[in-house]
């Protein structure tokens, strides 16, 4: 008699897949909240700018980019979350033999599950990248454009463009680890 591996809960999905899907959904939820808070701010309000030198004030295109990148970010996070929720639900349905339509679904194809997880992870990464670009534009609206050479803008943007991609690298590594298991 063959025993199942401790990681494997059923023939259709493993706990690491469900855990990775939960992580994707949780991260997306937090960042979606950040996107909504960002959209509540009016970047074109002149009282939002802390720039004293009028030549360094960001043009209206920066404010438009803030809104555009927030919308792109939101759509990426929503796409990623919906894919992850669908995959998680498929795994749960197959694991529940009492579900009336379980025989129609038969098994969750592990390759399809992995590809779905990868697509969901890519959506999250794109959402983070768009959110980072929105924040770079927020800094330029508030503190002055980077082209102007504002030291305050650089001081805010440099950690952002170093830390966010570093965290995304860790995130992608974990998703890829789950993808290969």
TrEMBL record:
> What domain of life does the UniProt record list for this protein's source?
Eukaryota
* Residues of the signal peptide: none
- So where does this one cross the membrane? 20-41, 69-87, 115-136, 156-179
Q: Which UniProt keywords apply?
A: Membrane, Transmembrane, Transmembrane helix
Q: What name appears for this protein in its UniProt entry?
A: Maternal effect embryo arrest 60
Source organism of this protein record: Kalanchoe fedtschenkoi
Source taxonomy: Eukaryota, Viridiplantae, Streptophyta, Embryophyta, Tracheophyta
């Amino acid at each position: 008699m063959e025993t199942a591996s401790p990681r494997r809960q059923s023939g259709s999905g493993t706990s690491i897949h469900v855990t990775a899907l939960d992580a994707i959904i949780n991260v997306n939820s937090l960042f979606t909240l950040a996107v909504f808070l960002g959209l509540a701010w009016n970047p074109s309000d002149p009282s939002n700018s802390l720039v004293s030198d009028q030549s360094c004030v960001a043009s209206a295109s920066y404010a438009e980019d803030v809104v555009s990148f927030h919308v792109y970010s939101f759509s990426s996070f929503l796409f990623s979350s919906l894919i992850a929720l669908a995959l998680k639900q498929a795994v749960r349905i197959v694991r529940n033999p009492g579900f009336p339509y379980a025989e129609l679904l038969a098994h969750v194809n592990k390759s399809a599950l992995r590809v779905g997880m990868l697509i969901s992870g890519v959506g999250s990464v794109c959402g983070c990248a768009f959110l980072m670009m929105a924040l770079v534009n927020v800094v330029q609206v508030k503190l002055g454009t980077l082209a102007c050479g504002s030291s305050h803008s650089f001081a805010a943007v440099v950690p952002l463009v170093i830390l966010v991609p570093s965290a995304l690298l860790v995130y992608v590594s974990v998703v890829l680890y789950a993808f290969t298991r």
